[in-house]
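Sequence in, structure out.
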Amino acid sequence: MSRGLSDHCALMLAIYVENWGPKPLCMLKCWEALPGYNNFVREKWLSFQVEGWGGYVLKEKLKLLKLALKD
């Protein structure tokens, strides 16, 4: 900003945070220690049949996996 009559310059700081919406999945490292966790995730992931381009398939599978983990 301009100095005006003073020898000090004012600063204006702005932080812009992009809102990307809800996170697709929150993974906690401790979940891997649960018996059957890896098999559950693998079976669910392979059971999802999603058609489309790679990014869309990944997004939808993560969304379905999140719902399955919540159940």
